[in-house]
Specification:
The structure holds 2 protein chains of 2 kinds. Chain A is an alpha/beta fold. Chain A is 33% helix and 20% strand. Chain A has a single domain, classed as Rossmann fold (3-Layer(aba) Sandwich). Chain A has 12 helices and 11 strands. In chain A, a hairpin with a 2-residue loop joins strand 4 and strand 5. In chain A, helix 4 packs across helix 5. The longest helix of chain A has 18 residues. Chain A is globular, with a radius of gyration of 21 Å. Chain A starts with a strand and ends with a helix. By secondary structure, chain B is mainly α. In chain B, 75% of the residues lie in helices and 0% in strands. Chain B is built from 10 helices and no strands. Chain B is elongated, with a radius of gyration of 23 Å. Chain B starts with a helix and ends in a 7-residue tail after the last helix. The chains are: A alpha/beta, B mainly alpha. The interface between A and B is medium-sized, with 29 and 19 residues.
Amino acid sequence: MAVLELDRLSRQFELTPGFVERVIQRKKPSYIKAVERLSISIGENEILGIAGESGCGKSTTCTMVSGLLDPTEGDIRFRGNSILGLKGAAIKDYRRAVQMIFQDPYESLNPRFRIVDIVAEGPRALELWGADEIKRRSLAMLDAVGLPSGKYAERFPHELSGGERQRVGIASALVMEPEVIIADEPLSMLDVSIRAGILDLLREMQAERGFSSLYVSHDLSILGNVADRLLVMYLGQAMEIGPAEEVIRNPKHPYTKALIGAVPIPDPRSRREVPNIRGEISKPIDPPPGCRFAPRCPYANASCNETFIEMKTGDSSLHQAACHRLDEIANAGL
Amino acid sequence: MSSSGASHKLHGLRLALGEHYRIINSNKLSQFGFWVIVVFTVIALLAPWLAPYDPWEMTYDSEGNFASLRPPSWEFPMGTTHLGYDLFSQLILATRTTLLIGVVSGFISIVIGANVGLIAGYYGGKVDEVLMRITDILYGMPFLPFIIVLIALFGRKLEFIILAIVLIIWRTSARVIRAQAMSIKQRQFIQMAKARGASDFRIIYFHILPNVMPLLLLYAAFNIAWSIITEASASFLGFGDGETISWGGMLYELWLSGKTRVAWWWFASPSVCIILLVVSLVFVSRAYEEVANPRLRKR
């Protein structure tokens, strides 16, 4: 059974025109469709990777799943129950069960808190255990993420390096004993040399404690490494989903092909076949109803702009792509 | 466990005091300001024992003559009034009133200002709208007519003078702290606290408040300085508490006596005291401003 299900989750932001434009030119507000009809499910102990460029709706999805932002349409279900409109004890339970690891370790730790207090903040806010128990668990958690509590507990964030801070961020999420971890590009602000250590830590913790995760990144090499399944997004729409290995080895969607083609290979002689993508990434302001990638896609025809393909959830081993012209592309041998 | 917790708290307290010590010692002016404030505080606390005469006692010099309008001398270090009151004793006792009004109204106004600012800045929207419109209305309120009406209604009592000062002065700190709270609210560690399940109350008072603390201390010092000036001007215009003596009140007595042109010593001492104390508070607050606003720091 799926731990977490997103059902046609959409979020749009209204762009209200200025007073003069609204009154004199009768301009209507426009909408940015940050996430559109996104349906995915995450199973027990599964790591779902979400890949995409900046502005594709990865972070918006994360903030919606963590309950910090309400979707405009669609539903989020945790173990079968909708989390929208939850109140009181139920929302507290959800807040404990679903924890987020933030992108920027320099900005996400309160500069006035000691390390141990940052880790203990969640349990204290939700009053999970008694004061002594919270302290004991927080110190143990610091040890577990590789920060010896005797040395680090009483320090302030500015005394720590980026990697150490990200470990604090991870400890503060894991101390709540969550069932789902949402990691919003947890490595992107770190030096390459430190990334492997943090990645190992995340994997180790996952094996030890058993939680599902939603792992967001723009770095396909990390996602291929860590994720069980991979979802590729473009401007708020799901483009392709499937087992991570399969998606990276054998991409179906033209966008995925281009994205994978953009990953550098440290060998100057190697050449790959990459679809010829036109133009620049745009903004999803009042887009046409169809595939967002169509304006840039070399294979697009008129029907691509009109209808939107929703992918099936349920069977997690299925490799599928939201493209009208899959067969033609495959037949053309491209 | 509990003993280690207590020693931890003590350690934290020592760290916090150490920080203030460092801030105040960071430049000569704030050091000067700090010591002036300490001296005035000691004078205020020990006033009844320090004053050589009762402030409303007609004094006589060593030869038995009535000491009216005497310039400063060994016997009367700051001279006397036309009724023979010793100005040195008056000044010492007035320090007490002035500091009391300054500290109490400074403190209450910063508590109100901080809460209004934090709540308006954090919640935004309608709450912000309502609280900030109230602040705007207070900005439109001229101080002297306001205090005249208040005192006409309730009488010349110390409590009502403090009330009037507080009602007028909290507005600036509310606005500034609102702006700061709005900017801190956008930072990611607030998002993180929310994601960890912290309530609004917890976010405002545990996460945002410590981060506006330097600004809060700065405005606390400003508010005390403003309260002292405001009290002095109100007392000078005759709206002070008639039962107690204050620096502004001494200047009011001078004005009433009509001896302004003759008795320079009578206006010199209270004026110098007002200037000295307010300037000291500003110097100390400047040191805190450097913490609140790192751009002012010397490189």
